[in-house]
Amino acid sequence: MKVSYECGPCFLRQAREALDLSTDDEDLKMEIMGDIFKYLADNFSKGTNSNKTGSTMHKMIKQKTGCDDPYFKEKIEGNEIALKYLPDVKKILKEDDSLENYVKIAIIGNILDFGAFTLDDDIESVIKGSLKKDLAVKDIGEFENSLKKYDKVLYLVDNTGEIVFDKLLLAKIKEYGLDITIAVKSQPILNDACMKEALDAGLDEFGEIVEIGAGTVGYVDSEISDEFRQIFNNHRFIISKGMGNYEGLTEIDLSEKDIYFLLCAKCNTISRDIGVNLHDMLLFKK
Predict the structure, then answer these.
(1) 57: domain CATH number?
(2) 117 has a pLDDT exceeding 60
(3) Where does a domain end: 31, 49, 65?
(4) 254 alpha-carbon distance from chain centroid
(5) What is the pLDDT of residue 120?
(6) What are φ and ψ of residue 236, in 5° steps?
(7) How far apart (Å, rounded) are the C-alpha atoms in residues 203 and 3?
(8) Band of residue 260 on the pLDDT scale cut at 50, 70, 90
(9) Cα–Cα distance between 176 and 269 in angstroms, integer?
(10) How far is CA 33 from the centre of its chain?
(11) pTM of the model as a whole
(12) Domain edge (last residue) among 45, 65, 85
């Protein structure tokens, strides 16, 4: 996806957050922020790829601070908090175990920033409230048809914390008899799930976990490994979680794929691109 004017302040917000997590050296933060201003001044324009721009910015921060994984603590805490709420979510699903509710739970995981929650927060109320909301775009019939049609699926995960809720949908998919391949980032980027976080959350219970060969914001086709490209090309049926993967995958030809996006539209640029309202929950086929 291409940037909009609103992506500019979002890049700077992310840069500040990553810098604060990477170093306490105020002079170094000032220097790096200046470098980011220069980079954006030279590269931020109409037609710029949003994922590649964000990935380059985070790479600059990691290289200059020497901190390879700024969100390390947030990722651990996100998974731990989500795992504590997993039994409660399972109880909720026992009341209505429809495929749609499992999809909603996976999308609710995309809504919740588990790294920002504590055990004192009423996450259960947020979950129950979101389950009562209708999906703004609901290609659930086509989705179930694909579950019945194919014998394998590639599942592109997004953030830590969120991946714990993905486990429930992965278990539901298993009921359809599909072989599942679960794709994670190869290097740390933001609070995205890498191999360690996926294993800690127990995703290997449901299928083989593979790395995409890159540590990019979302999916950046030019950065993935040859090994992952072969895996991607060998799958007709793909499930993509989160906005970052949507931004990247819509840059490439998907005409031969049955690909479904599960996300919450958390920014105006994404909402406008898809044609939905801000904060809408979506399951749609591209």
Answers:
(1) 1.10.8
(2) no
(3) 65
(4) 19
(5) 60
(6) -85, -30
(7) 33
(8) very high
(9) 35
(10) 26
(11) 0.93
(12) 65
